[in-house]
């Protein structure tokens, strides 16, 4: 997996792109607006979600997840176990923070009328976490890891060998 900051940036961007793409469609479907939004609204929603999610992943959730994983789990943990545990921290953190974005967009579309903000947030968080956790572990994680190793890691190794 990523061994350098540059590789980590590529990996994080790829993972974020895939997760935000699927979760944008999922949340629009949940809010009942998937069939009524225009392509431009869909694109803008995805772009805004992607920028926010990538920023959170790179500067807030990712670093906190790495710190938490290193403190909670021993350093002699098998690499695959450490990757899965850190990924669980990231999914939880991203679902928690991106649900605020979801709450704001739901409110703007009138989806929180008559419901307390806390109740709406908890509902959005629970639905997002339930979708994001298996999506990340079973679908996006393996796809992004495969693409990363196939295209990014090979390019990095080739560039190093050429020097």
Short description:
With 163 residues, the protein is mostly helical.
Structure, explained:
83% of the residues lie in helices and 0% in strands. By secondary structure, it is mostly helical. It is globular.
Structural class: mainly alpha
Which overall shape is indicated by the principal axes computed on the Cα atoms? globular
Assess the beta-strand content as a share of residues: under 5%
Helix percentage range: over 70%
Essential attributes:
163 residues, mainly alpha
Helix and strand arrangement:
Blueprint: H1 5-30, H2 39-72, H3 79-108, H4 117-162
Helix pairs in contact: 1-2, 1-4, 2-3, 3-4
């Amino acid at each position: 997996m990523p061994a350098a900051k540059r590789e980590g940036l590529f990996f994080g961007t790829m993972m974020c792109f895939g997760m935000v793409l699927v979760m944008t469609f999922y949340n629009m479907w949940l809010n009942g607006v998937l069939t009524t939004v225009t392509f431009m609204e869909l694109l803008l929603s995805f772009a805004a979600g992607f920028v926010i999610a990538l920023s959170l992943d790179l500067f807030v959730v990712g670093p906190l997840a790495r710190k938490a994983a290193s403190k909670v789990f021993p350093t002699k943990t098998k690499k695959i176990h450490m990757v899965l545990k850190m990924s669980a921290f990231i999914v939880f953190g991203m679902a928690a923070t991106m649900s605020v974005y979801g709450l704001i967009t739901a409110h703007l579309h009138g989806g929180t009328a008559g419901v307390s903000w806390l109740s709406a947030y908890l509902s959005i968080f629970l639905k997002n976490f339930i979708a994001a956790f298996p999506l990340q572990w079973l679908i996006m994680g393996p796809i992004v890891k495969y693409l990363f190793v196939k295209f990014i890691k090979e390019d990095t190794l080739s560039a190093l060998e050429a020097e």
